Amino acid sequence: MVEKAGKRAAAREEMMRRILEAGRAQLDRDGVESLSLREVSREIGVVSSAVYRYVASRDDLLTLLVVDCYNDVGDAVDADDQASAGESAKRRYIEIAARMRRWAAAHPERWTLLYGTPVRGYAAPSEQTNEPGTRVLSRFMEIAGQAAGEPSGRGLEVDEGLERFLVTEQEQFGTSLSPGAMVVAASLWSGTVGAITAELFGQWGPMDAEIREPMFAAQVRALSTILDVG
């Protein structure tokens, strides 16, 4: 009985791996609007009813991909951060922002799924997506906390109502950062995502390829000055 249960679990794990792999390939090739469980079933060579036993709907497939993409960009951000732990907060932020940009350039459709126009009719289930979805922001909070302890940190004052809200958010992020430092982290995150998205979606208009990287680097240096007020 135990052996049979183990085989069933292994078979399920393998099928989920194949479904996710096919979903990734479809997302990268055709974009989020074209995602289809029927196409996934064709990709892995099984009847669609077999796929529906594991992933009940397109929304469930989207959730699998959202979690996978959040973890992938989170892994990219964390990849070398341990090695730069002795660096200043600004240097760590600049390096992390560059890794985010490289990930977005390598996976534009995955970045679009996470940070582009919301998928119509889809609401990501917070119980599955909150933890992976806040990995990058949590890293920025760590950096903001580091900056707050550096000589240049001056402390940012926030509105009382916002402060009360941020205090309630501290538990979710497992942080004891001051509300001001949390605002700094959120500003770094939103500014970095915005800069990458503007470049990726061509929102700067015609721009030669050799200008894009120095443009992003200049934006990131400007954003890094926010750490002085955390």
UniProtKB/TrEMBL annotation:
All copies of domain HTH tetR-type, residue ranges: 13-73
Residue range(s) of DNA binding per entry: 36-55
Pfam families: TetR_C_33, TetR_N
Keyword NADP part of the UniProt annotation: no
Keyword Transcription regulation in annotation: yes
Top-level taxon of the source organism: Bacteria
Regions crossing the membrane: none
Keywords: DNA-binding, Transcription, Transcription regulation
GO MF assignments: DNA-binding transcription factor activity; transcription cis-regulatory region binding
Name of the protein this chain belongs to: Putative HTH-type transcriptional regulator
Native organism: Dietzia timorensis
Highest classification ranks of the organism: Bacteria, Bacillati, Actinomycetota, Actinomycetes, Mycobacteriales
